[in-house]
């Protein structure tokens, strides 16, 4: 996704409804000293994942909450939430968002939970029974302490493919750095590419040093490191400060932003009097939400000037404004209604 980083949380003007608005704001590139900037690639409304040759829609859907009973969904999963997740999937496809990000640990191993990969696979199958539907899948390997060597990556990947009901996925990522065995995990990613089980490989939550090491190890086999998925939003800017974003720009690695709307906190849905429930309430406390209100008010003000909701403002910010790097975003989505809003978010 072509996206924008805004110093101090100040947003630039939005295009008026119906306007093209392609060249509104061009902040400087964040490129490591002495390095040539990587060219951002965009074609047919999609962005390339690094040098892999795989292209996905600029906005994706994160399926972390689907089936989960530990962090989301107030600790329970029921038919109403299943229907909402299915509605989110169909609404996304209907408005041209076809990139879905999941993981083997989402919704797994807890009583009452349903694996997110299984749900995504079911939704894809049901949709394709009605009509041909293009879907790009990203999923992740959990670097658990008892997993050793490259073979563990292939075994986990094949289990993910079974749950998804597909023979390969567009992007397979190491979900986080392991306590040990990371070189073996990277070798497993390379094996997955060579066996035709994945089209591109990436990492998630990797520091600059780990990112560079992974890039070099895969490069020796002629395999590009396509992406690094990290927490990145208007209120969480660490990738700009810790060298990760600059390294991605330098090496031509796509930075995939998860939680780009801060788990809903930036949409204005939550207030000091109405904080999120469950574990999110310990992060987005009334005190934190009070400090966030000036930014929320500014987002609402900008949206009001152009007939847009806060979600649409953030979507335009993420998908239409170029900061000179390749960046894709995967906000989470649990129901269909907000994506009805997204249809009005484009130029």
TrEMBL record:
**Recorded superkingdom:** Eukaryota
The protein's matches in Pfam families, at most eight in alphabetical order, are given as: Aldo_ket_red
User: SUPFAM superfamilies from the xrefs?
Assistant: NAD(P)-linked oxidoreductase (SSF51430)
Q: Which InterPro entries did the record assign?
A: Aldo-Keto_reductase, Aldo/ket_reductase_CS, NAD(P)_OxRdtase_dom_sf, NADP_OxRdtase_dom
Q: What CDD domains has UniProt attached to this entry? A: AKR_AtPLR-like
Give GO terms: molecular function aspect only.
oxidoreductase activity
Asked if the keyword Phosphoprotein belongs to this entry, the reply reads no
Keyword match Amino-acid biosynthesis? no
Protein name per UniProt: NADP-dependent oxidoreductase domain-containing protein
The protein's UniProt keywords, in alphabetical order, are: NADP, Oxidoreductase
> Start and end of every NADP-dependent oxidoreductase domain?
58-313
